[in-house]
């Protein structure tokens, strides 16, 4: 029976978590204010009421303790889903993530699995300061043993969180917080349908003039830029990375071989970032197809600014279109 629902990203995540908990009693949710409050963004709203305090746990303000507890639960056969309230709060848990969570499967020669999901609301655009608006995904993509993904739409949110929970690998699941409740991004989802494969790159808009590769909140910016560029006679192809580690660059290479140009887009600072890696790999694999250097549109190499300045910090439609013009003028 088809059960079509038009969902925001936030509601899709909530229903995806609910479905995972219904299907597997070993799935637990834990984090700061995830229970009675339903999370500061209300992503876990109603789950403690329906599944009880034994499965939806309000934790102390201690990210190291949250992750360390999840590691122990995973050893005992549970599938913990940890929420980090804001991305900038993740660093007290960095040692547990990098030294324990990412390494135990390898360290035990495969005997111990780590089916832990860490949900991370990330990115700017909500009028908040540093620790509440950052993009630290490149740091975790550099750590062997972790999978890092980022969703940009409700369909991927609903199916992606379920696929992450079913995985036996530790996954950092980055969610674009400013898009959680965007009515413009509501999508019809057959919640009882066949799950698509989410953790691979996907062309979300076809084009021929230039390729724009993005992930998370930047995908919407790329799509808006592509719509605006069409009025100027340019056809931009947009690729949503979706998986940040391991990177799935096959569709990006294929697109660049067609368009000859690439703009890599991200809110994160540019130095030593995912856009750096994309630029390096594309010039290695597509050198003779490139008509211009790979250009990057990113946040600046500064701490995240006060709210009144964030519109100048975040990459926007105009900065993407300017990069397209620079590429075409090469």
Give an account of the 3D structure.
Its cofactor is thiamine diphosphate. One of its GO terms (molecular function) is oxidoreductase activity. This is Alpha-ketoacid dehydrogenase subunit beta. InterPro entries: THDP-binding (IPR029061), Transketo_C/PFOR_II (IPR009014), Transketolase-like_Pyr-bd (IPR005475), Transketolase_C (IPR033248). It holds the Pfam family Transket_pyr. The chain is of the alpha/beta class and about 325 residues long. It folds into 2 domains: about 5-190, Thiamin diphosphate (ThDP)-binding fold, Pyr/PP domains (Rossmann fold), CATH 3.40.50.970; about 200-330, Rossmann fold (3-Layer(aba) Sandwich), CATH 3.40.50.920. Helix content is about 35%, strand content about 20%. The chain contains 12 helices and 14 strands. The strands form 3 sheets. A 7-stranded mixed beta sheet has the order 3-2-4-5-7-6-12, with helices on both faces. Strands 9-11-10-13-14 form a 5-stranded mixed beta sheet, sandwiched between helices. Helix 1 (about 10-25) runs parallel beside helix 7, helix 3 (about 65-75) runs parallel beside helix 4 (about 95-100) and helix 8 crosses helix 12 (about 315-330). It starts with a strand and ends with a helix.
